[in-house]
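Annex B. Sample input.
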Amino acid sequence: MDSRSRSCRESRGVAVLLAAATLLIVAGGARAQHRSGGYAFRLFWAAPEGDARSLVRGPRGRLWAGCGDGTVRVLEDRSGDGKADYVQTFASRVWSPHGISFRIRGTALDVFVAHTTTRYGGASRITRFVDTDKDDRFDEAYTVISHMPPGAHQTNNLAIDPTGKWLWFSQGATADKSPGGGALVGKVAPDARDVPWGDPRIQIVANGLRNAWGLAFHPNGALFATDNTRDDLGDATPPDELNLIRAGRHYGFPDVAGIPPKGHPSEPPVGLLGVHGSANGLAFDDGHLMSGSRHQVFIAEWGSWTGSPGLTAGTRIVRAQLHRDARGRWHFEAHDLIRNCGRPLDVAIGRDGALYFTVQTSAPGWTEGVWRGAPASGVTVRLEGQPRPGCKIEVAVRAPGHEGSRYRLSLRDEKTESSVRTGTLAGALGRATGTIQIPGDSVGRRLRVVCQVLHPETGAIVATAPELVVTVF
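Annex B, continued. Sample output.
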């Protein structure tokens, strides 16, 4: 976060593979909703003061938001109407709360927050807030790391690793063009107290990241981070990055951004995002509402802070395939989920399986706060694995309210339709599972997965899942 700007000043976005048209619908005094690619997006919670910044799903499946007014809030939809009807301020005067992570310790809840010491900048620190009585208000607070490097960027996101042994953090560089302080991913013991910057109890794991904003563990335990690369090299370069964090590696800043030149020792990114798109929060999909492949990743792109008319990346939510092949190589392919949605900064998957994201700066039809996205038809299709040439892949269809109806599932490309499968939706939620065959000659091809729900008597199409596009690796 730039101390000279109200918002994140980063930039570098994603190559657009599918342009998602957005439609704003307001009817009969109902809440405004936006539609894009078969999804409906509605306001979940309007931030009453300032903007919404960080967002994470916490224990008991509730959402926690760090806000520009210096509060950390607990948000919950208890009535099931898609709006937050329980909002509790957990902590206040926690300025620029960009990272939130959790640890359950007996009957107590530890809430780790990365924030700044003053409202408009200052040094960063990580604080452990403790809720001892489960009333959603902190009772104790302890500084974990103090006096982290101030400057153009601050400490960003936090993540407790799957073992619970380490608290990981991402720290931005203190300057735009030189490493200065920070520009790294590090870790510290969660129980540490009052550790000054530079203390050997802080372990620096990876360097050369200009402003690693998003930080999240893949379900297989691998750690990924988004990185906002340099702003001073013009409108055409460099792209933002998604990086696999590996111990002891250097990721190129300030000398290299994007794919390093042949023979250069810096670690290449797993995926490239848009130029000056400000790739920030990321979340791995472990839910069931967002049609896609298992463990797909969602990334919030805030957009450029420079205002240059030559920059078009950002102000969108990106959905990407992220899979590792048999040789251990990661493959990344990104598509727009929705564009022109204000200034999205962070994303989370809710306990209901829907996608939630923060909008930091309002735009026409977009209110500052937290928004919820889910299929407009209620029908979803999930691929339980990575499509590979000539292989069968498991598919799960979910269509609540269509129990007993037939469904039709097909794979399509620009010219042909293949692997057509039909079946009956059963169970209380209209579920079905099966397999589809991936064509043997489909390496590198982009396939559309189309799922239609058919009337049980007439066979007419009554609902369609959001179209899913996958690339066969």
